[in-house]
Amino acid sequence: MKIIVAGAIGRFPVGGQAWCEIQYLLGLRSLGHQVFFLEECGESSWVYHWEEVQITNDLNYPADYVRACLEPFGLGKNWIYRSGNKAVGMSIQEFIDVCYQADLLLIRGCSLPLWREEYNLPKRRIFIDSDPGFTQIRIANGDQELINTVERCERLFTIAQNVGEPSCSIPTLGKQWIATRFPVFLHEWPFVEDATCPDFTSVMQWKSYKAQVYRGIHYGNKDKEFPKFITLPQHTNQPICLALTAASNQIEQKLIGLGWKTVLGWKTSYTPSLYQRFIQTSRAEFGVAKQGYVASRGGWFSDRSVCYLASGR
Fold first, then answer.
1. Which terminal Cβ of the chain has fewer Cβ within 10 Å, N or C?
2. What pTM did the predictor assign?
3. Helix pair 303-310, 15-30: axis angle to 10 deg
4. How far lies 106's CA from each of 73, 120, 222, 277, 307, in Å?
5. CATH number for the segment(s) 2-179
6. Using alpha carbons only, how large is the chain's radius of gyration in Å?
7. Which DSSP state fits 159?
8. What is the pLDDT of residues 37-73, one digit of tens each?
């Protein structure tokens, strides 16, 4: 089959996000399918430039990042980064030709801000929700981009293992959500034996986006859940290191004062290889879920955790 995986690598240029897409691309290719990557930005591309510490609408920065992530895996010619009437990677006509032949458009974890006519051409379309609870609440609260994307898909999947159960507060919106899990491509994530690694670690974003409210219940980020564990280093001799992003200097200094080790998250995990190295030189993972995942009781399981586990961590 020809499969187009639509996701986000260039718009969120960090190694963990890139691996989320790469795992699907490599896994599907290993099953004998021909795979292509689509990143649809809509009318304009707005990306945070880590080195310049500012937002950029230059397509070269995110597109170069996509290329650098995919080329090592033999996918350097099978991707397109689109914004308005511009594209980097494959030409627009080359990609439209692929759409005509495609058996499946797999949309992973994000909306397509601009639904172009050619996205109707693949024989089937599926949506994989990787942010359970937040996705459904945004739809319920009227996020038109998500609504337009989900309505065009024949099958809906979610990482929430408990979706539809009485104990789970994630709204199903009258739709069938099929539970799935984050894949990990074991050929690229082998077991690594190293008993000398000293630190438990976590790759975490303190606050990813605005909290969501649904039927009076707030669904927040890690900044609302982490305080439950904030004194943990005072109760153990085990060093715990956080690769931390989106936390203020005040928060970081407070964590350090309580015994946490911290490193600059984006720099530690900027590329897929740096992200992998950080995980595979850890003793084990210490992870805290977003408060929204906990509040919804959705049965979420982390894309990072599958990488730690595959590595024997």
1. N
2. 0.95
3. 70
4. 19, 12, 28, 29, 22
5. 3.40.50
6. 20
7. S
8. 999 999 999 999 998 889 999 999 999 999 999 999 9
